[in-house]
Recover the amino acids of this structure.
């Protein structure tokens, strides 16, 4: 039995999240179906179980989801990639594969994750704005970065955690939280050791609440320290959110 790690890309618009769910189409259900067909063959092959580095919500995308699985059959990387991508839907693809140590665990071995949220900041929408949130009012990048700076470090992020979350986890270490602008597009990038349910979308919602109402950026610090979801902004649309990278070495800020 050998263990393999793959990096999976997907557009999450048509899926009920990454994690497998009864009677719903998810990234994991489609990936496991393709893996089982490719590796085991036959009409109804046994399911090959996959472990994701973390869960992404319905509508969230990925450029760097790491997944591991075990296989008794040998795998040739070049053949595997062409074959698996031929079996997967057009909005899911595998971009790399490597054999890893048996102790490797896509979720438990991960040291950090990086998410980006895309905003297009202009008055008029464009057909090319897909997977970005249109914000018509002008946004102040300097103020936004001041707001985000209060999130860096180890904190209790209860204020940005969904009330529907089942995990008791609340503490995260944020290594990077900043936004950059290229033309009309603003990219908010947050790197952390882990993320709580709806955390990034709630942070972006709070950031926009501060900007729309011209509150002082220090309000982000007050919301964080309140440890109360009621003081944060709304949970923003998932369509602008993408998992960019999962790292297995200590985070290095570029």
């Amino acid at each position: 039995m050998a263990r393999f790690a793959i990096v999976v890309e997907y557009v999450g618009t048509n899926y009920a999240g990454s994690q497998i769910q009864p009677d719903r189409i998810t990234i994991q259900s489609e990936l496991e179906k393709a893996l089982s067909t490719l590796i085991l063959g036959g009409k109804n092959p046994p399911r090959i179980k996959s472990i994701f580095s973390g869960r992404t919500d319905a509508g969230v995308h990925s450029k760097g989801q790491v997944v591991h699985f075990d296989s008794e059959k040998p795998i040739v990387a070049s053949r595997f990639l062409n074959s698996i991508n031929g079996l997967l839907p057009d909005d899911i693809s595998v971009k790399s594969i490597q054999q890893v140590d048996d102790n490797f665990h896509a979720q438990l071995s991960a040291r950090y994750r990086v998410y980006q949220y895309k905003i297009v900041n202009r008055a008029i929408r464009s057909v090319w704005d897909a997977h970005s949130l249109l914000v018509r009012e002008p946004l102040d990048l300097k103020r936004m970065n001041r707001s985000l700076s209060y999130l860096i470090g180890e904190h209790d992020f209860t204020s940005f955690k969904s009330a529907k979350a089942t995990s008791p986890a609340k503490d995260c270490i944020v290594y990077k939280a900043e936004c950059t602008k290229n033309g009309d597009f603003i990219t908010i990038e947050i790197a952390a050791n882990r993320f709580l349910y709806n955390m990034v979308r709630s942070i972006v919602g709070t950031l926009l609440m501060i900007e729309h109402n011209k509150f002082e950026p220090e309000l982000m610090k007050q919301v964080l320290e309140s440890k109360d979801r009621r003081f944060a902004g709304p949970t923003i649309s998932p369509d602008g959110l993408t998992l960019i990278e999962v790292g297995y070495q200590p985070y290095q800020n570029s």
In short: The mean pLDDT is 95. The helical segments are 27-39, 77-87, 141-149, 199-212, 219-226. The beta strands are 2-10, 50-52, 61-71, 92-100, 112-121, 133-135, 153-156, 171-182, 185-192, 241-247.
